[in-house]
Design brief:
This protein has 340 residues and is an all-alpha fold. It has 13 helices and two strands, in the order H-H-H-H-H-H-E-E-H-H-H-H-H-H-H. Helix 4 packs antiparallel against helix 10.
């Protein structure tokens, strides 16, 4: 029997091929194993209703994760996405319930606010040279306080009493609520469809347009990209504008889903969204932000949480498990790839 040949990497070709296979497909194999384990331990896990429930549960932070992917591509990170989504929840609710505006105007206002926040983040990072983590962290705290001002820190709901004692006469437009509560053909939740459409658009932009190639080039070597004639600063600003706009879409869908402007609605969105985007680095071993990996990362988190919940695992252990999975997946991908 012929012996395995040596490779330029210093190991045998058999070992090298095994490592490459593990890097490319290891995460997907782990995900499939989770599916199998949860299905065996709890047969109801694999039902269609539960699968659509998982997709509906990940739709909001999956959308936010697709937005933050743009900032990761240009070697940045937007920590304000959860607060932007929460701001959209409060502003859209305030516009319809208190100001008695229609759904279209309310949604447009939210999208403009999200883009404005992204623009401010981009300008502070590019023009003022403030590190992206500090900029977006500061913006996160700023927006968390700002969103409480219109409602004086109260949840906005139909028929609520205002500070002057008058009852709010506005209401949530049924067409607006359909965005969060409706189902296509009575089966597929509308937020899931929106998430998939956004994922497709993000994939097309990043993987099949010049703009996406330039963004990836900026993330790899901004100085070389600048010397090649690309407007690096403009692209970096646009990445944050896109991130803020997509985050506002997530907020709109969230309030449309629950039908109330809850002041705590944005809690937890940031960690799940960033976690999904970072897990995407491990999908197919690409070791870079990508929309397909982000979507798979969001589904992975949803599967993990759904399975743990159905197995009656205490809720206070779930964040620990999510964090452990994220750290291990990134360690596996980057460490193994470095040695291969």
């Amino acid at each position: 029997m012929p012996e395995p040949t040596k490779t330029e990497k210093g190991g045998t070709s058999t070992n090298w091929d095994a490592k490459q296979f593990a890097i490319r497909y290891g995460f997907l194999i782990v995900m499939a194993a989770l599916y199998l384990m949860f299905s065996i331990l709890e047969p109801a896990f694999l039902t269609w209703s539960n699968q659509f429930s998982i997709l509906l549960g990940i739709a909001i932070y999956g959308i936010l994760a697709l937005g933050v992917t743009f900032t990761l591509v240009v070697d940045g990170l937007d920590l304000s996405i959860g607060s932007v989504a929460a701001l959209s929840v409060m502003i859209s609710s305030y516009c319809m319930v208190v100001l008695e505006q229609g759904a279209v105007i309310s949604v447009i206002i939210c999208l403009l606010l999200g883009a404005l926040v992204g623009l401010l983040n981009g300008l502070l990072i590019v023009k003022m040279k403030i590190p992206d983590l500090l900029t977006t962290l500061g913006m996160m705290f700023l927006i968390q306080g700002l969103q409480l001002i219109p409602s004086a820190g109260r949840t906005i709901s139909e028929g609520m009493l205002m500070e002057d004692g008058e009852e709010a006469l506005g209401f949530f437009d049924p067409s607006f609520l359909y965005l969060g509560q409706g189902r296509l053909f009575g089966v597929i939740p509308i937020p899931v469809i929106v998430m998939l459409v956004i994922a497709l658009l993000v994939y097309i932009v990043l993987d099949h347009t010049r703009w996406g190639r330039v963004m990836y080039a900026i993330g790899g070597n901004p100085e070389a990209t600048r010397l090649a004639g690309a407007p690096v600063n403009l692209y970096r600003i646009m990445a944050y504008v896109i991130s803020g706009t997509i985050a506002s879409i997530g907020g709109v869908l969230l309030v449309a889903r629950v039908g109330v402007g809850d002041i705590t609605s944005g809690t937890g969105l940031l960690l799940d969204a960033v976690g999904a985007a970072l897990i995407g680095f491990a999908v197919f071993g690409v070791r870079r932000p990508n929309p397909f990996g982000t979507l798979v990362g969001a589904i992975f988190i949803g599967v993990l949480l759904s399975g743990l919940t159905m197995l009656s695992l205490p809720y206070y252990t779930q964040d620990f498990i999510k964090g452990g999975v994220l750290v291990l997946s990134l360690m596996f991908t980057f460490a193994l790839a470095k040695r291969s």
